[in-house]
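User: For my dataset I need records formatted as: sequence, then structure tokens, nothing else. Please produce one.
Assistant:
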Amino acid sequence: MSSPETGTETGPAENLPAVAPQLRALRRRASLTLEVAARAAGLSPAHLSRLETGQRQPSLPMLLALARIYGTTVSELLGETVADRDAVVRAADMEPTRAGGWTYWQAGAPGRGMQALRVHVPYGAQGDIVRVHPGEEWLYVLKGRLRLRLGDTTQVLEPGDSAHFDSLTPHRLAAADHNGTELLFVHTLLQSPTATLCLGPTPGETP
């Protein structure tokens, strides 16, 4: 079984070089101590410190959690900027980013009240992580099948299916097919340092 801290400890972040300095700067901008921010993200202060110093690589769900807690976006955590916050995002400008086994592309401009992503979820990647946090999420399956657990129910979504739910409902995303699944994903960004995300395995279950 993995945990929020053991599931992402893959060594220095090779694919996310800008994350470490941004994490510390944005935490300080939000006026949060290391201890308070770590507790809000379900981490130990030592683990968050390792993320801030580049000794550990955060997963995509962890980046989403920290973005909510700091009242910002994953783009800003990664040190990305978009001039004048253009309403149109061109396909050529959507650079892939890999975190925790997932690959995602920013499909919207930073600084908005929502964040849009195109996500590829490989089979078995983070399939035991259950998320709980304030806000709403909407997803649309583009390719492959997605196993979505909401509370005590589990459903398999086919291409063309979508789901829109309250993020306080414990939820889990996992690819149902060995080729993985690709989806559009939109979530609200809560501009509050009190937003939280709880990560942890579901005992006795497999993706």
